[in-house]
Amino acid sequence: MCSRIADISCLLGGLLAGRGDAPQAAELFARAAERYHEAAVPWYAAEAEARLAEAALSLGRPQQAEQAARAALDHCAGLFEPLGCAHLHLILAESLAATGQDDNEVADHALEATHWADQADGGEGLGAWAQLVLGGALLRLRRYDESASVLESALPALEEHHHEGHVVQARWWLGECLAELGDHRQAGGHFLLAAHIAKGWDGQRDHAVLAHLAGDALNGAGLNEEAAAAYARAEELWRTLGRPQSAARAVRARAGTPCGTRSGQKSSRAVRRTTSPRTQPASLTSAGVRPRAKGSPKALG
User: Fold this and answer.
1) 59-63: long-range contacts at Cβ-Cβ below 8 A with a sequence spacing of 24 or more?
2) Residue 136 pLDDT exceeds 80
3) What is the pTM of this model?
């Protein structure tokens, strides 16, 4: 009887999820998983736990998503297709990142997700998303060379299969990696490309930050005119946003201080200190990207 009730709960949860009622769907999936365990058929609980993990993450409940994803992986041995396994590992990686847990484990699950996605038909989009999560984890671990390689590999599929907000995330992180590796010219190029996309968003905070980061990178590359233009754009945006302190940093960087190039480096550090690598910029949400834990670009400024 418990098993039949669980079947019905899981079916209803799926219907509600399809209608966009994630809170009720999550409740039904949780109830279904509990009933399957009561019926001593935990392997049947794997699907309900997987659906619960997905719903919980979409609702901003990463702890619940982590618990459900771990349970589903424990119970799903041989039950899920490669795409389903990839999705579960990706949900777990995102949940761990959202709760600030060990980025080595985030990277492990994101890498596992990419392996499963490679084996799946039609897994290119999910694989690119997993690479984005992996790139973010490697960046936070200061493994800049590896992160840059992963993000560069992900970009074509992200541009083909995902919203522009995810492309901005990849270029933003890639710019940071390249700047840390001393390739300031290429870093500036990626910041400018990301800024060009963000220019069309409702919120302009990310546009301002990316323009300022582009200025810092181009300054580091010795491209003074291009750097000055980027700083000027950042200054204008910061003033429009009512951020006089950020605008002042852009003015100082553009004007150039007696410290020379170090002024741009100090400006970059000042901007970065206001950020968290796990924070979702508000403009990504306004661009239609639901908050994810995949190591979102830093909300700077």
Assistant:
1) 59/22, 59/23, 59/26, 60/291, 61/26, 62/94, 62/95, 62/96, 62/98, 62/99, 62/293, 63/95, 63/99
2) yes
3) 0.82
